[in-house]
Amino acid sequence: MKTEFDRKEFFNLCWEKSILWFCKNYIISYQEFKNLCTEYQIPLPSNGYWMKRKFGKEINKPKLPQAYNDTGKIHLIKRTEENSKKLKTAGKLKAIDSNTKSNDLEVPKRLPKNPDPIIQEMLSDNPKKHPVVNNIRDYTKRYNYGRIWVSASRKPYKRALCFLNTFIKVMKERGHYFLFCYNEAYIVIEGIEIAIRMRERSKRVYETEKSSYQSSKLVPIGLLSIITGEYSRKKEWQETPTKSLAEKLPIIITYLEKTAKKERLWQVENAKRRKEQAIEEKKEEERKKIQKEEIQKLRLIKQKSDLWHEANKLRTFLNACDENENLIEEMKELVAFGFKKVDWLDPLKFSKDELFHDLDPLKLLEELE
User: Fold this and answer.
1) What is the pLDDT of residues 119-151, one digit of tens each?
2) 0.90 cut: is pTM over it?
3) Per the count of CB atoms within 10 A, which of 21, 254, 274, 288 is most buried?
C-alpha cells in the first residue's frame, strides 16, 4: 500500500475506499481523516453513496476543486502490529509530516542525562540574567538564553521538564528555534514568535468559617497545562486524569505550525497591501500636486482674460471718444493718456510702463472700482 499520495490520487482513493478502510490500514482516526480532507479541500462521498454504488445506481462524483496546496504531498503511516501497540498520537503528526520519527514524540518519565540546553538552564542554580541598562529592561530585545516559565509544584514541575525537553527537541528538529526576554519565552516558527509557558492546574476550594464567612483558595491538583500565544490569540491545552499532555503533543505541534503559517501568510499579504497602498498614495499625492499646478495656471488664465476684457472695454470707450469731433482739449489729452495705459493693461500687447512697473494690473482695477 502507498503511504504518499498527491492530492488527486488521494481524492480518487477516497471515492474508492471508505473511511473505515483508511482507519484499519493506516494509523489515523476517523476525525483526523476528516480534518485531513478538510485541510486539502478534498470532497468526500455523501450519505448513501456506498449503498448506491453497491446496487449500481447512478452516482454524481464532483470535480476536485483547485487549492493553494495542490503540489503538496499527503503522507499516511501504514498500520502494522508493532506500531498499532505504540502511542497512537505519534501517528497523528506523521499523517501530516513523515519526517518525524514516532519515538521522537514519546515523552519519557525521566530526563535524559544530557537534556536540551534550555532545560539545563532551567535546572541551573545560577541562571544567565538579561542585562538591565540604567534600571530599565528593554522588552523589545530577544536573547538566545533563558528559561521557559513553569508554575508548578515539585512533581508536576519534573514532568513539565520531561515534556518540554521532548517538545523542544522535536521543534528544533523541525527547523524552529526559541528566543527569550526576561520572564517570557517564545518559539519562532517561520519568523513568527509564539509565547509559551506552562502551569499546574488548580481548583477552587470553598471554606466556611465559624463566623459564617465563606472564603476560598486555589489548591493545585497535579495536572499540567501548556499555554501558547498571548492576549486574544492565547490557547491552552490541559491535562486530564485520563489524557496527559504527552498524548496531545502532536496536536499542539500541528496547531503551532498551522497558526504560524497562517500568521506568516497574513503578514506577507499585509505587507503587499501596504506596499500597494503606498504606491496609490504616492500616485494620489502626485495627482494632487499636478492638480494644484494646473489650478494655478487656470487662475492665471482667468486673470489674463479679465484684464483683456477690461482693456477692450476701455479701448472701445476711448475709440468712441477719439471719433467725437466735439471733444475739448482736456478730454483729448485724457484719451491719449488712456490709450497708453490700456496697452499696459492688455496682456496681449506686452506694453511696458516705467511708472507702473511695480503695480499689479488686477489689484489696480479693483482699487479703481
Assistant:
1) 999 999 888 889 888 888 888 889 999 999 999
2) no
3) 254
